[in-house]
Amino acid sequence: MLLVFYRERGCLPRVHASSGKSFANHLNFNDRMRIQNFIANYAETHAVFLPGRIPGFKRDDLQLLPSSETKANVWRRYKLATEESGYRVVAISTFWKVLNAVCPFIICHRPMTDVCWQCQKNNCLLYRSANLPDNEKAARCQLQQAHLEQVNRE
């Protein structure tokens, strides 16, 4: 049905059936491209890249926004930049719908995944040490502590 419509009339914006007017809040191509460009630029400067697959996600090409940044904070930065440029600002729900549709590989991640690869391995060892003797638990804790001290020195 939609294929026939597009072949007959081409790609047109949606029009209200009874009044023949287009929707006032219709997101046009330029608005969508501005959102996409903002998100891509923001992710390029702020994204955290962790090696390997992220727990809870099937993709391994994810760009993770820092856990200190919420979705609302990213949208506020977008809103501020767009208002300064004099362009139309979209609502936060529309902003994230565009993000999920166009850039599904850019996500805000939970604080538990905001660690380096070595920390993840050490944490995994600590989680699995529940039924081990105390000396092995202590050795694993010391391994993680040594890594954290090294990171603090860097």
UniProtKB/TrEMBL annotation:
Protein name, entry field: Uncharacterized protein
